[in-house]
Every structure is written in structure tokens, then in C-alpha cells.
């Protein structure tokens, strides 16, 4: 063996035996799969982070899209809202993502479903042929309503028949639509396990709650500012006359007269002063001596009328103003005077039936009815001797009770927290004591009530006269003794029942906010008149309580109204009681607003969420302070009213992700 061969053989032997070089070779062989593992971890972590952010964006968009739904449709605008929130959370190209796809849709139950997908590029795995990783997520959002009692306190005064500027429907029609939309939204959102009940208190000068009350909660006798028969006197009149006139009918001979009809708010149903002028011209009289010694004089009256005259009347639920404009309107008539041959003396004897105008106590126990459940029966009647009089005999009139009430006893004070005073009317939960009239309610009977002396010339003192003073229940078609539609206590209601109820809401009367709010609280309270029904839900869960108070105007009382506290001009149960001057409307407005403020505080102290809507009117500090925090709204037209009710429905519901 040569030396070279020996050297080669020794090197190979040493190399075979030396293990230090193996590490380098093994490391070189392992580095490629190791890079694959590390790259997978890095790229998958990046994909995981991207998918998490994609899921968050999907959720945010679904929640925002569902929250933006108004009414019962998921519109393109709602989809745009959902996409905007998605984009804000997952901008195009974030983490180098590509091929972003996002869709939002909703089913008939308004569950909003989102689908989102994208591809995320790899950094290291692309060396091994995996250039992108696909990510995809889905999300659902829906409203679910907890156990809820919702009491609507709705202004149904005369002005609700008016139409807001820019609208094509009356305010009462807009209200019907908005409440229906609210109901539809909540019913769609509630689960089979949840209890949602609705109640209604329409209000004006008083409320119509009588049909909900127990018979023992109402008085058997009550005193009204009325009239009763006095005595019959004989009146003898002697008159001497030289003759008498007779008049023919008017005949138009020229000019024009044009009548136009418009409508005023019922609260201001007063005709403007007439501006018309009439010029009278008489023709030369023709005198004829008759064979019987009498004398006949004939002449023609010609009238020329210019200007305008006005008249008002209550037509349905609106104040109808008729304006008649005259332009040289000319008419004439024939007038004839017959002069006796000798003057005639006539003696007339007649009976006169006189009245006492004063407080009169009536037995009203017959109005209670005999309902098996012990409740009052509405549309019952009593007979009262209040018709006729004067030149006719006294006659009985049938008085129908529609269900409206007078409040129980109160105090002439604004210190509503003074426990030494008996504000029975402001005590929300007090159950009346049978036989104790101070604690009981009274039937409102406007056709028993009379002015004294006239509606524009009041007299506080009692009166004995044959004159027929104004009956408040008849005056202006009952506007001054308005009885709203019946209230409805808390309960479930079908869509058809709701439509029937809302369509039956009548509008009339002035704006007494306190009486509506008071009875909304009474019907909502879990510890008062209806504690057995309102205390807890049928499923045993707690109940969220909401009072939605909607009005279209400021406090607007009138001491000439027969309201929940009697005839204010005479009864003066809340105002001062001077015998010389009438209380003013401004004084009474202040009292009503002070009581409303007190009741709003009571509601919030009872954990009732108070929502306030000023519809077609300013959201005053009185109204905004009445509401719970962030729960006061102003809606200037029908569209805004719809949106407001939809927003309230959304906030009452609990928005949640279901996937």
C-alpha cells in the first residue's frame, strides 16, 4: 500500500469516527420542514387574528343594522348602516386581506344575519405553495323584549283633529299609525316566554276610567252645580197696541255672497268679530184707508250688505268656522203695518216655572249597575227634573253616564308632599273606603251641570229665576264637558283589537295633563288598585314598567270647563275660593303643571321609565323634565312620530347577538 493510499484510508476512517460533522448535516436537512412549521404558526396566528376581527365587525354591523330598523322592514338603508359599522371595524385591506365579501339580510322576524369572508395572504407558507388562507364568519342579531308593562297616556284633546304643517293626515290619524308600528315591532321582538301587556289612558279635561272601577270605589250620592225646580208663579201682562207689522221674506236682487269653511282648534272655537255693514233704505210708503176704519201702510226695505260675517259650530270632532263674504249683496222685502181703528188692550195670564240654580245632591247609586265582577257599568242612566221651566212645565231628562269621573277630595295647596294635608286625589295606590266619599270617585255628568248666569257672565251666588241658563253638557256640542274614549287597563291585545281601539279614539276638550298622567300611574302600579294583576308576571319574572306620555300642546285649561274637579268656575276645589272674582285660567294652568311635575317625580321614584313625546309642539322644560333621562322627544310631523315610537320600541327591547 502506498503512502497516499494509507493517508486516504486514515482520513476516511477518522471522518467516519468523528461525529462533530453530523450536526451540521442534520441541521441542514431539518431546516426546511422547520421553516414550514414556524411559517404555519405565524400565518395561522395572523389568520386567527384576522378572523376574530372579522367576527367582531360582523357582530357590530348586525347589531347596528337591527337597531336602525324602523317599523317592520329591513331596508337598503338598514343594510347600509350595517355595512358602515362593519367597515369601521374591518377596513378594506386590513392585515393585507383581499376579496372581502359582506352581506346582511333579515328574515320575517327581523333577525338580522350577516355573512363575511376574505382571504389573508401568507408570509412563509407561500414558499410551500400556500399563498392565502380563507376566513369566513356569520352573525345574527335580534331584539328580545323582557316582561314589560307599557301604559300609553295619550292626549286626545280637540287639537288632535288638526293637521301638522307638511302632513296630509290629522294628528290623531298619525298617532294611530305610530302606535300600531310600535306594537308591531315589540310583538315581533318578544319571545314566547316573555309577557308584554299594553294599557291606554286617553285624556282631555278628565279621563274615562269608570268601567274599570269597582262599585264600592264610587259614591252613592254626589253634589253637582245644577238646578232644581222651585215654584210656579202666575204672570199677568197688560199691553195696549195701536197696530202691528208683518214682514215678507227677503228676495235677492243683486251682488254676491260667498261662504267659505275652515277649521279652528277646538280649544279656540271662537268666531272673529263681524266686519260686515248693512245699509237700509225704505221706499215711499203707500197708505190705504180701509172700510173698517183700519189703515194699511206698505213699504219696501232694501238692504245692501258688504264685508264679512263669521259663525262657528262643532262639527264632529272639529270646530267649523264659516265665513260669509258680501259684495254689494242686495236684497229687499215688503213690510206692512196695520193700524187699528182704535188702540187694542190685551191682558195675558201665564204660568211661569222657576228654578233654583245651586249645588244639588243627586242619588247616583243607580248608575253602578249589577256587573257580576263588581265593576261599574257604563252607559247607565238616571232621570233628573232639569228640563223645561220658564213658560213650560218642568220635565225630566234622562242623563247617561259614559264612564268619565270626577276626582276624589283634594286640597287647595301646592305643597303636595305635606302629609298633614289630605290629597286623596294624588294618592296613587289608596283603595277607596266604602261609604267614605272623600276617598271615592264620582261619576262625571256634564248634562246635570249649569252655568250661573251665563257662560260669559258668571255669578257665584245661587240664583232663583225662570231663565234657562246654559247647560254645560250641551254647550258647544259638549266641548266644555268633554268625556274622552274609555281607558284600557293593562293586558295583552291582538292586532285587530288594537286597530279597533285606536280607531275609536275620539278627540275633544282642553288639555289637563295631570289627570291623564295620574291615571296612567294608577293603572300601571303594582301596589295599588290592580295589585293582584300587576304585581308579577305570569312566568314569575320581574316586570319592566314604561309610561309613554304623548301630547300635542301645552297645558290649556279653562275655568268654564266641567272637568275632573267639577265646574271650576263654581266648585273651585283646587283654586282659591273667593266669592267676588272668578279664578283665572292662568292660575289653574299653574296648578295643573305643578301637579304634573309631582306625579312625574312619583313615577320615576317607583322605577317607572317615563317617555315623553311632544307632537307638533315644543318640547318644553316641563315636558323634558318629566321624562326619564334621555327619554324626551319632539316629533314635528307624522314621519318623526313614527320614528320616535320605533326608537322607543327599540330601546324597550333588548338587542342581543344570537350567534
Can you walk me through this structure?
- With 659 residues, the chain is of the alpha+beta class.
- The strands form seven sheets. Strands 6, 7, 8, 9, 10, 11 and 18 form a seven-stranded antiparallel β-sheet that branches.
- It has helices spanning 3-17, 22-67, 76-89, 171-189, 495-503, 513-524, 531-534, 568-571, 585-605, 621-626, 638-652; strands at 98-106, 112-121, 132-144, 148-155, 196-203, 221-247, 251-264, 277-282, 286-289, 295-315, 318-363, 380-388, 394-401, 405-406, 442-443, 453-454, 457-458, 463-465, 488-491, 544-551, 562-563, 566-567, 608-615, 632-635, 654-657.
- Strand 16 and strand 17 (457-458) form a beta hairpin.
- The chain is elongated and about 180 Å long.
- It folds into three domains: 25-144, no CATH class; 148-209 and 403-444 and 483-657, von Willebrand factor, type A domain (Rossmann fold, 3-Layer(aba) Sandwich), CATH 3.40.50; 221-402 and 449-475, no CATH class.
- The protein has eleven helices and 25 strands.
Spell out the blueprint of helices and strands:
Elements: H1 3-17, H2 22-67, H3 76-89, E1 98-106, E2 112-121, E3 132-144, E4 148-155, H4 171-189, E5 196-203, E6 221-247, E7 251-264, E8 277-282, E9 286-289, E10 295-315, E11 318-363, E12 380-388, E13 394-401, E14 405-406, E15 442-443, E16 453-454, E17 457-458, E18 463-465, E19 488-491, H5 495-503, H6 513-524, H7 531-534, E20 544-551, E21 562-563, E22 566-567, H8 568-571, H9 585-605, E23 608-615, H10 621-626, E24 632-635, H11 638-652, E25 654-657
Parallel strand pairs: 4-5, 4-20, 20-23, 23-24
Antiparallel strand pairs: 1-2, 2-3, 3-25, 5-19, 6-11, 7-11, 8-10, 9-10, 10-11, 11-18, 12-13, 14-15, 16-17, 21-22
Amino acid at each position: 500500500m502506498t503512502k497516499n493510499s494509507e493517508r486516504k484510508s486514515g482520513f476516511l476512517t477518522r471522518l467516519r469516527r468523528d461525529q462533530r460533522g453530523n450536526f451540521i448535516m442534520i441541521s441542514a436537512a431539518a431546516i426546511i420542514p422547520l421553516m414550514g412549521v414556524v411559517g404555519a404558526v405565524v400565518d395561522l396566528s395572523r389568520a386567527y387574528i384576522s378572523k376574530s376581527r372579522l367576527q367582531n365587525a360582523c357582530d357590530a354591523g348586525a347589531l347596528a343594522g337591527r337597531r336602525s330598523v324602523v317599523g317592520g322592514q329591513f331596508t337598503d338603508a338598514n343594510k347600509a348602516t350595517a355595512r358602515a359599522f362593519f367597515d369601521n371595524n374591518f377596513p378594506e385591506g386590513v392585515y393585507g386581506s383581499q376579496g372581502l365579501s359582506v352581506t346582511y339580510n333579515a328574515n320575517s322576524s327581523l333577525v338580522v344575519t350577516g355573512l363575511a369572508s376574505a382571504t389573508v395572504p401568507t408570509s412563509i407558507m407561500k414558499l410551500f405553495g400556500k399563498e392565502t388562507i380563507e376566513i369566513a364568519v356569520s352573525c345574527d342579531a335580534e331584539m328580545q323584549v323582557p316582561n314589560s308593562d307599557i301604559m300609553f297616556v295619550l292626549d286626545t284633546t280637540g287639537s288632535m283633529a288638526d293637521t301638522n304643517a307638511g302632513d296630509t293626515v290629522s294628528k290623531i290619524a298619525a298617532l294611530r299609525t305610530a302606535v300600531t308600528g310600535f306594537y308591531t315591532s315589540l310583538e315581533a321582538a318578544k319571545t314566547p316566554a316573555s309577557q308584554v301587556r299594553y294599557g291606554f289612558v286617553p285624556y282631555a279635561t278628565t279621563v274615562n276610567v269608570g268601567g274599570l272601577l269597582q262599585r264600592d270605589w264610587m259614591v252613592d250620592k254626589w253634589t253637582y252645580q245644577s238646578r232644581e225646580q222651585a215654584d210656579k208663579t202666575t204672570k199677568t201682562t197688560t199691553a195696549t197696541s195701536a197696530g202691528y207689522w208683518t214682514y215678507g221674506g227677503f228676495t235677492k236682487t243683486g251682488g254676491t255672497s260667498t261662504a267659505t269653511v275652515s277649521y279652528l282648534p277646538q280649544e279656540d272655537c271662537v268666531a272673529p268679530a263681524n266686519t260686515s255693514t248693512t245699509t237700509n233704505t225704505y221706499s215711499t210708503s203707500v197708505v190705504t184707508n180701509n172700510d173698517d176704519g183700519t189703515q194699511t201702510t206698505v213699504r219696501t226695505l232694501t238692504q245692501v250688505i258688504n264685508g264679512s260675517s263669521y259663525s262657528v259650530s262643532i262639527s264632529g270632532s272639529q270646530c267649523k268656522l264659516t265665513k260669509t263674504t258680501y259684495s254689494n249683496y242686495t236684497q229687499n222685502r215688503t213690510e206692512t203695518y196695520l193700524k187699528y181703528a182704535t188702540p187694542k188692550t190685551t191682558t195675558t195670564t201665564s204660568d211661569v216655572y222657576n228654578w233654583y240654580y245651586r249645588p244639588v245632591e243627586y242619588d247616583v247609586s243607580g248608575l253602578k249597575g249589577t256587573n257580576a265582577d263588581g265593576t261599574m257599568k257604563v252607559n247607565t242612566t238616571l232621570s233628573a227634573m232639569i228640563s223645561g221651566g220658564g213658560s213650560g212645565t218642568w220635565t225630566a231628562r234622562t242623563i247617561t253616564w259614559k264612564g268619565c269621573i270626577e276626582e276624589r277630595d283634594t286640597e287647595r295647596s301646592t305643597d303636595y308632599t305635606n302629609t298633614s294635608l289630605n290629597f286623596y286625589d294624588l294618592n296613587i295606590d289608596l283603595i277607596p273606603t266604602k261609604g267614605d266619599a272623600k276617598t271615592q270617585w264620582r261619576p262625571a255628568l256634564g248634562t246635570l251641570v249649569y252655568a250661573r248666569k251665563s257662560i260669559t257672565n258668571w255669578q257665584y251666588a245661587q240664583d232663583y229665576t225662570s231663565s234657562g241658563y246654559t247647560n254645560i253638557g250641551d254647550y258647544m256640542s259638549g266641548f266644555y264637558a268633554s268625556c274622552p274614549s274609555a281607558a284600557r287597563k293593562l293586558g295583552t291585545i291582538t292586532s285587530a283589537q288594537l286597530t279597533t281601539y285606536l280607531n275609536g279614539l275620539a278627540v275633544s276638550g282642553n288639555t289637563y295633563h295631570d289627570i291623564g298622567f295620574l291615571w296612567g300611574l294608577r293603572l300601571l302600579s303594582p301596589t295599588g288598585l290592580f295589585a293582584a294583576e300587576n304585581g308579577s308576571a305570569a312566568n314569575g319574572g320581574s316586570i319592566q314598567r314604561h309610561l309613554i306620555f304623548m301630547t300635542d300642546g301645552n297645558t290649556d285649561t279653562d275655568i268654564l270647563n266641567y272637568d275632573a274637579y267639577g265646574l271650576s268656575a263654581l266648585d273651585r276645589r283646587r283654586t282659591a275660593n273667593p266669592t267676588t272674582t272668578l279664578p283665572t285660567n292662568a292660575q289653574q294652568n299653574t296648578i295643573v303643571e305643578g301637579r304634573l311635575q309631582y306625579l312625574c317625580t312619583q313615577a320615576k321614584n317607583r322605577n317607572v321609565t317615563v317617555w315623553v313625546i311632544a307632537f307638533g309642539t315644543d318640547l318644553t322644560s316641563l315636558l323634558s323634565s318629566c321624562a326619564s333621562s334621555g327619554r324626551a322627544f319632539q316629533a314635528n310631523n307624522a314621519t318623526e312620530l313614527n320614528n320616535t315610537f320605533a326608537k322607543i320600541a327599540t330601546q324597550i327591547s333588548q338587542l342581543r347577538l344570537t350567534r
